[in-house]
Amino acid sequence: MKTSLARCLASPVNTPLVFVVRVLLLPFYLAYLLVVSARNALYDSGLLAPVHVGVPVVSVGNLTVGGTGKTPLVIALAQQALGQGRKVAIVARAYGAVADAEGRTDEVALMAQRVPGAQVVMAPDKLMGARRAAASGADLILVDDGFQHRRLHRDLDIVVVNARAPMSNGYVLPLGGLREPPSGLGRADAVVLTHFDGLDDSALETVRSGLLAWKRELPIAWGRHVPLGVRPVAGGALAPLDSLRGQEVYLFCGLAEPEGFRRTVEALGAHVQGLCAFPDHHAFDAASLAEVRSLARTARLLCTEKDAAKVAAIPGSGDILCLVIELVIEGSLPALPVVAASSSAR
Q: pTM of the full predicted structure?
């Protein structure tokens, strides 16, 4: 219910119910906007200064709430840096339900699994986590979801934008999906556009022009989610993508942007019988799985790799598959920093 209301408010469609709810939330919206704008002004003016940790820091964040593809980009950057011989640490805050025996959440567990050569630091505070990473000997720190965490100095700020809803409905929380006003894009060093599949050239140019309106010289790359294969949720070898072609599958996931999952699977030639979308970071349990099985009937169950560890912990989940993807960057991003900058606050 909470998720449905949030999506409804973020929609540009102004139904009578949405209008009434927006009016009721207007005081909270104004208060949030005032606090965020004042805080940004303090950092922009230099009255507040970010803290350097002595190690290059790259932030991967966004302007909107969820669903852009930050975690796959962090994984891709970590793999790139490890390939260059860097000592990489990923700093992430623990959102959502515990996914594995080590107490890690879904996204943290996925990053640890996909980038085993990197240290993954879970911390409620990004600055605290970065200090721990620096003390452990890392020479590059990647911060997952760090764009609004201005207390920590960053040498490179990459913002991930969903091309289908680049600025949500234009309102900050709680009337829309923006974490801060679009002018915050002026702090970005680069943008990666995701979820652009199916959009024509005209729509993509509109999105690109809209982003450049906030910062004229802004590098923009494209992040394409490329499926690699399918595997059992408990792990194992990847089966080829062709194994889905012509198969009846029923999808379920705990994502902020579930329709992207559907589009990807349909493009692989599978017959999607339905999609059961749970809230982002959903804590899957036996009841969740029973609900999905009742909806799927005879179709094969397929979830995302992000949800796989939580689903695998449920007895009787051995027949469920997950789709494994990676983010491929098209275009160029600024080089990963080697020496921590001592420039002014972002």
A: 0.91
